[in-house]
Amino acid sequence: MVSLSIDADDEPKEAPKGVLDDGIGVYLKRSLGEVLFGTKLNILGLCIPLAFIAKHQEWDQGYIFAFSLLAIAPIAERIGFVTEQLALYTNPTIGGLLNASMGNITELIICIIAIKTGELRVVQLSLLGSILSNLMLVLGCAFLAGGMRHPIQNFNKSASSTNASLLMLAVLCLVLPSALQTSGGLGSDEAEALSKDLELSRFSSVLMLLVYAATIIFQLKTHTHLFDEEDDEDEESILGFWGAMFWMAVITVLLAFLSEFLVVTIKGASESYGISSYFLTTIVLPIVGNAAEHAAAVVMAYKNKMEISMGVAVGSATQIALFVIPACVVVGWAADVDLDLDFSVFDTMAMVSSVLVVVMIIQHGESHWLHGLMLVTAYIIVAGAYWVHVDESLE
C-alpha cells in the first residue's frame, strides 16, 4: 500500500516506548509472534521451505512456481508491517517517503531478477499486470464490497485527480514508443528503429522518474493538506528500529530468492499447467503476489475507509507506472540490457483502456457498487483477452 499523507508539522516524532523495557524475553516473544503469526495469511509461509526444497530437489517447475508464488504473498504483506514499524522512528516526511518507496518493492525485485536473467517480457508483463489488477480488479472489488454496505462512498477528489493525471502521463510515455514502432515512424531500417525506440524509452524514463520525485515533494512537503488522512489509532512499536532493520533484510533476501525461482520457472510452469506464459505473467502472478494488499483494499472499503483503499489500488498503480517501470528501464540501461517502453500494441491498448475507464469513474470523488461491478467486469474481459492471446516472444 502506498501511503503518502503526513502531518503538516515535520518535526521528528516522539520516540516510541523502548521495546526492551519489559526484557529481552518478552521482546522476542512479541516480535517473533507478530512477524510470524501477525496475520492469518502467514499460513502460506509454509510454502517458503517447500519452495526451497522443490528447487533443491529439482521438482517439476510447476510446483516450484506455485510454492514460490504463494510464499511471496505473506512476505509482501509483512513488508508493509515492517516498513510501518521503521516509520515510527522517523519524522513524517521520511516516514512517508519510506512507505512510498517500499510500496511496490515486491514488483521491483521480481523485475530486477527478470532483467538479470534476460526475461525482459516478464518485466513488462508483470508490471502491466499489476497496473491492470490494481486499477480494475482491486478497485472494482473495493467499490463493490463498500457499495454493498454504503450507498455512496466519498474519497479525496484532489488526491484522485492527481493520481489520474499522473497515470495519463505514464500512458502517454508508453503509447508513443509502441505507436512509432508500429506505424513505421522510426524509419525502415530495423536496427536503427530499435535504437531510436530505446533512446526514446530511456529519455522518457528519466523524465518520468523526475516527475515521480516532484510528486513526492508535492505530496510530502508543498501540498500535504490535499492528502491529509485521519488516523484512527497510533501504531505501537513492536520490533524496535534495529529489529525492523533486521527483519527487512531477512525479508528482502527471501524475496530475492523466491523471485528468482518464480522468474526462471514461468515457462516450465506454463507447460505443466497448460496455460500460456503470457496469461500466467500478466494475470495470475500479480493477483496472487499482491493478494494481501488487494484484500486490505477491499476490507478498508467495506469499513468505509476509502482513502486507504484508494491509496492501495490507484496509488499503487500510479507508483508502478510512474516509478517502477521507468526505474526498470534505467536499471536495464545501467546493466547494458535493452529494455524499452514498447509494450506492444495489444498491451498498450489494454493499459490505455483501463486507465481511461478508471479516470472517468473516480473523477467525481465518489463511488457505488455499480462502479465496482463495471470495473470487475472490465478486468474479466481483459483477462479473457490475455487468455486467448499468444505472445511468441514469451513462449
TrEMBL record:
<feature type="transmembrane region" description="Helical">
    <location>
        <begin position="200"/>
        <end position="218"/>
    </location>
</feature>
<feature type="transmembrane region" description="Helical">
    <location>
        <begin position="160"/>
        <end position="180"/>
    </location>
</feature>
<keyword id="KW-0406">Ion transport</keyword>
<feature type="transmembrane region" description="Helical">
    <location>
        <begin position="93"/>
        <end position="115"/>
    </location>
</feature>
<dbReference type="Pfam" id="PF01699">
    <property type="entry name" value="Na_Ca_ex"/>
</dbReference>
<keyword id="KW-0813">Transport</keyword>
<feature type="transmembrane region" description="Helical">
    <location>
        <begin position="127"/>
        <end position="148"/>
    </location>
</feature>
<feature type="transmembrane region" description="Helical">
    <location>
        <begin position="239"/>
        <end position="258"/>
    </location>
</feature>
<keyword id="KW-0472">Membrane</keyword>
<feature type="transmembrane region" description="Helical">
    <location>
        <begin position="312"/>
        <end position="335"/>
    </location>
</feature>
<dbReference type="InterPro" id="IPR004713">
    <property type="entry name" value="CaH_exchang"/>
</dbReference>
<comment type="similarity">
    <text>Belongs to the Ca(2+):cation antiporter (CaCA) (TC 2.A.19) family.</text>
</comment>
<feature type="domain" description="Sodium/calcium exchanger membrane region">
    <location>
        <begin position="245"/>
        <end position="383"/>
    </location>
</feature>
<keyword id="KW-1133">Transmembrane helix</keyword>
<feature type="domain" description="Sodium/calcium exchanger membrane region">
    <location>
        <begin position="64"/>
        <end position="220"/>
    </location>
</feature>
<keyword id="KW-0812">Transmembrane</keyword>
<feature type="transmembrane region" description="Helical">
    <location>
        <begin position="35"/>
        <end position="56"/>
    </location>
</feature>
<dbReference type="InterPro" id="IPR004798">
    <property type="entry name" value="CAX-like"/>
</dbReference>
<feature type="transmembrane region" description="Helical">
    <location>
        <begin position="278"/>
        <end position="300"/>
    </location>
</feature>
<keyword id="KW-0050">Antiport</keyword>
<keyword id="KW-0109">Calcium transport</keyword>
<feature type="transmembrane region" description="Helical">
    <location>
        <begin position="341"/>
        <end position="362"/>
    </location>
</feature>
<dbReference type="InterPro" id="IPR044880">
    <property type="entry name" value="NCX_ion-bd_dom_sf"/>
</dbReference>
<protein>
    <recommendedName>
        <fullName>Sodium/calcium exchanger membrane region domain-containing protein</fullName>
    </recommendedName>
</protein>
<dbReference type="InterPro" id="IPR004837">
    <property type="entry name" value="NaCa_Exmemb"/>
</dbReference>
<feature type="transmembrane region" description="Helical">
    <location>
        <begin position="62"/>
        <end position="81"/>
    </location>
</feature>
<keyword id="KW-0106">Calcium</keyword>
<feature type="transmembrane region" description="Helical">
    <location>
        <begin position="369"/>
        <end position="388"/>
    </location>
</feature>
